Amino acid sequence: MSRSAYKCTDHRYKTRIISRTPLIIYIDKFLLDYEIQHLIELTETGHQTSSTVDLECQKTPVVKCIAQRFARFQATIRVEHIEPLRLVKYTSDQKYEPYVDWFLEADLEKYGSQRVATFFTYLYANCSQGETEFVNVRFNKFLHGKFCDILVCNENSRELGIRFRPIAGNTIFWYNVDEQGQGDVLTARAEQPPEKGGLKIGLNTWTHVEKFFVKKMRTLDDIHSTILCDF
């Protein structure tokens, strides 16, 4: 499909509630094959060769359509509340230890507002490993055994958090805060590395409680620098 022929239309996808506390929803086929291909191509053009690529204010119809879909999924959220999409590449020597996406109270002014929700979408995976693990949400065979097509279910599962298999096109959505609006430690996740020679590409999408705008940051450890996007 050519870029000029692309139309931003709604399509059918399937949702499954994996956990209620915290709320974690799995979305089958949230992105279309052409959209995935387009995002991956954006990581391979120009100077964008690092393991993390921020799609800062990309004006392509595909990127804008994807951002709008993430907003619509949350019903009351406007697209202006969503950070520019961030792509992440994982190789066998890259692993993210458990971390949370929400901000501490002292950091809210610096980052604009709280990240209330996260989408993590698998764009590509040629590996049998590379799971996304919610380390504080224990695997329960009674609750999670019916999801073994998307979760890792083996003899070690009961000793670990729920682990999502990397399946291209599918998305995990969760709320980062509890009912009081406080950061929820149960949402801590770890991105496991793929097997040797493998590659996983994911898409992070973060929703803020307010219209997204932050001051320009100076270090890679800070939130990625951006300006308010005009969608």
UniProtKB/TrEMBL annotation:
This protein's record includes keyword Metal-binding: yes
Domain called Prolyl 4-hydroxylase alpha subunit: residue spans: 22-208
Entry GO CC: endoplasmic reticulum
Alphabetical list of InterPro entries matching this protein: P4HA-like, Pro_4_hyd_alph
A GO MF label: iron ion binding
SMART domains per record: P4Hc
Co-factor requirement: L-ascorbate
Keyword Lipoprotein: no
PANTHER family xref list: PROLYL 4-HYDROXYLASE ALPHA SUBUNIT, TRANSMEMBRANE PROLYL 4-HYDROXYLASE
Name recorded for this polypeptide: Prolyl 4-hydroxylase alpha subunit domain-containing protein
